[in-house]
Each structure stands twice: as C-alpha cells, then as structure tokens.
Design a protein that fits this description.
- The protein has 105 residues and is an alpha+beta fold.
- It has one domain (2-88).
- The chain contains two helices and five strands.
- Strands 1-5-4-3-2 form a five-stranded antiparallel sheet, with helices on one face.
- The protein is flat and about 40 Å long.
C-alpha cells in the first residue's frame, strides 16, 4: 500500500512540475491593442466573435476565422495592453439551446 501511495505521489509531483515548466517557458504575448488586432486580422483573417468583462478592469475577446478555423482569446487591460491568452484551430460557432432554468451549458 505504501509503495502505491509513493508511486502515486511521485506521479502527481511529476505532473505538477511538467505543468509549471510548460507555463514558465511560455512567454506572454502582449502589445498595444491596435498592434494585436492588426496581426489577428491581417495575418490570420480573424474577427471578433465574442466579448465579455474579465473582472472589473479587463475585457476578454474571442477572435476567430470561419474560413481557416483559427481562433484567439485575448484580454485587454485598462491601459490598452492586449495579451493573447490562448489560440488554436478548428473554431466552430455553436447555437445551443438554453438549458431548463435559463442557464447555458
């Protein structure tokens, strides 16, 4: 039993270290809002598909290209700095029905 717990804790420790290492090596990609938007539109053909507040001082936006399927999530702070949080491929817009009780999935 002790060997199983030791192996399990070692596995979790390795997973935590690997995750930390991946995030530590990923440089945050930030620039002025206009520069980021120019890159998303000009290089990737992405347009804004969604927007929302992120806390009280930032705006989250989802940009995507329905032609290529690329997508990018950005956060813009009050000082106008925009950072790319995530990006990927195979974007697909969904129009899902609301669940009973009025809350989405």
């Amino acid at each position: 039993m002790n060997q199983k717990l030791f192996a399990l804790s070692l596995g979790f420790g390795g997973l935590i270290l690997a995750t930390h290492h991946a995030f530590a090596n990923s440089a945050q990609q930030c620039a002025g809002r206009e520069a980021v938007l120019a890159e998303l539109v000009g290089r990737y053909g992405e347009t804004r598909h969604a927007i929302g507040l992120a806390g009280t001082t930032a705006v989250m936006e989802l940009f995507a290209s329905t032609d290529t399927g690329s997508w990018t999530i950005t956060v813009t702070s009050a000082d106008g700095t925009t950072c790319i949080l995530a990006s990927g491929l195979n974007y697909e817009a969904l129009a899902e029905a609301r669940l009973a009780g009025g809350h989405g999935a």
